Amino acid sequence: MAPLCASAQIDIVQKKTTEAEEELHTFDALLVRSATKVTEELLEKMPNLKIIGRAGVGVDNIDVDAATKRGIVVINAPNGNTISAAEHTFAMMAALVRRIPQAHISVKSREWNRSAFVGNELFGKKLGIIGFGRIGSEVAKRARAFGMSVHVYDPFLTKERAEKLGVSIHSLDEVLTVADIITVHTPLTKETRGLLGTENLAKTKKGVYLINCARGGIIDEQALIPFLESGHVAGVALDVFEQEPPGDHPLLAFDNVIVTPHLGASTVEAQLNVATQVAEELLHFFEGRPVTSSINLPALSKDVYEKIQAFYHLGQKLGLIASQFMNIPVQELSVTYAGTVADLETTYITRSLLAGFLRPRVASTVNEVNAAMVAKERGITYGEKFSDETHGYANCISLTVHGENKTFTIKGTHVPNYGDRIVHFDGVAIDFAPEGHLLYIQHQDRPGMIGKVGNVLGAHDVNIATMQVGRQEAGGKAMMILSLDKPVDDEVLQALAQIDDIETVKRLEA
Ligand SMILES: NC(=O)c1ccc[n+]([C@@H]2O[C@H](COP(=O)([O-])OP(=O)(O)OC[C@H]3O[C@@H](n4cnc5c(N)ncnc54)[C@H](O)[C@@H]3O)[C@@H](O)[C@H]2O)c1
Ligand SMILES: O=C(O)[C@H](O)COP(=O)(O)O
């Protein structure tokens, strides 16, 4: 939190959401740990919210889809508590096989019963790890130091990474059947909920030990009961529960089930790490700098951000202008990158362009977080292409919009230390800055057109800042793009449209 406390721009309110009902609508940012449930209902009460920071890893307490729909960025602190969670898992493993909690209670009860607490060694045992990300791999390192062999199931794990960490990759069934101890380290998802349920528990070795320091529900708590009763499962260590707190849960009655109250990340070090990480990201966000640990935005490093920043702005302007020009339903946007921009992280630029395009069309907030989702909802598809055709510029972004019976193409370039320029507009080569109050006029290429337009605008007290003209061929289709000191109203548009040889007049705000 220190970075936030040091910022003069940030006011910090530290309360439970239920205690802040009256103020909820005022907050720009929300920082939470796992106990706060960020539901759609809560988000509805927070119309000002722009970012949610999870001071930890798991975001299963946050309705990320609902946040994305509202254009709210969700960030987490993905590695600040990894070591603490891995150490806690290992502490639970040792406690489980040596029955330390039970022995502790016994001695505290003034007993001295050494024969009741004969345990097992970890040395030489097969450890099954399900989910081999940050925590799973740290657990593996510690297991190897204890002389255990490590058998991993993770559908996304590469052979190279497994070899590097000295573990063997297996199918889920193989891990279930060979492991003496199984520890789960996946997120809680549709696929992992109940992963160790009746069917899979039946495949485990008789006398297996199980550990869940990841998320309640990965091991099905109800399914576990008969396996404990029969002695098939020798012991279970749980730091997390399907419902937290678990209340009077039947599992708590088993002597060989050892538990902690979701303490994996509860160390001084981990809390300092995650709080600092998420606070720094939050400040970056409000300073308009890239955030690197967003759940609902592609990751962007500072270096990459600095390179794409200019194109990000250009993309947004291309989308904005195209959307107003094509003020009809559209089905498809096609973006082509050429020259230096084609080598950059274009996903971000495309998202920005999409957000610019959608902004004049939707009432709700649309930004690079929810642009793809909003486009999908409205049946608009989009795609990226790459080309060598830069039209003589160092870089060129070309956007083609496909609507019913009409297609429109706009191309722009970014000139360092000069700015953005639109260099092609609806088939005509032109050169204007996509800024401010613009007026598009399509007309026949005849002498005197500029004067006539100037007269109408002058008569309505509208000052022209710049004027660019272009045409396909002499005497054919021609266009003017004017930049004005103030927006024009419908009366001015009608007066311009009445000039002979003017075919279309459109207001474009950029
Ligand atoms: N107890 C605690 O206090 C505590 C602390 C930190 C993290 N956690 C939890 O630990 C878990 C792991 O965290 P992490 O930082 O290692 O995450 P991670 O994203 O680095 O790793 C998760 C791994 O699970 C794998 N995975 C995903 N679906 C899978 C599936 N169906 N089968 C097998 N593997 C699958 C992924 O490929 C990934 O490698 C999360 O649930 C997190 O919320 C708990
Ligand atoms: O996912 C996590 O980071 C852990 O479950 C820790 O959660 P907590 O910080 O809310 O204890």
UniProtKB/TrEMBL annotation:
Its EC number is 1.1.1.95. Residues 438-510 form the ACT domain. It catalyses: (R)-2-hydroxyglutarate + NAD(+) = 2-oxoglutarate + NADH + H(+); (2R)-3-phosphoglycerate + NAD(+) = 3-phosphooxypyruvate + NADH + H(+). Keywords: Amino-acid biosynthesis, NAD, Oxidoreductase, Serine biosynthesis. The keyword Amino-acid biosynthesis applies. GO terms for molecular function: NAD binding; phosphoglycerate dehydrogenase activity. It is an enzyme of class 1 (oxidoreductase). Pathway: Amino-acid biosynthesis; L-serine biosynthesis; L-serine from 3-phospho-D-glycerate: step 1/3. GO terms for biological process: L-serine biosynthetic process. Catalyzes the reversible oxidation of 3-phospho-D-glycerate to 3-phosphonooxypyruvate, the first step of the phosphorylated L-serine biosynthesis pathway. Also catalyzes the reversible oxidation of 2-hydroxyglutarate to 2-oxoglutarate. PANTHER family: D-ISOMER SPECIFIC 2-HYDROXYACID DEHYDROGENASE FAMILY PROTEIN (AFU_ORTHOLOGUE AFUA_6G10090). Belongs to the D-isomer specific 2-hydroxyacid dehydrogenase family. This is D-3-phosphoglycerate dehydrogenase. It comes from Geobacillus kaustophilus (strain HTA426). The lineage of its organism: Bacteria, Bacillati, Bacillota, Bacilli, Bacillales.
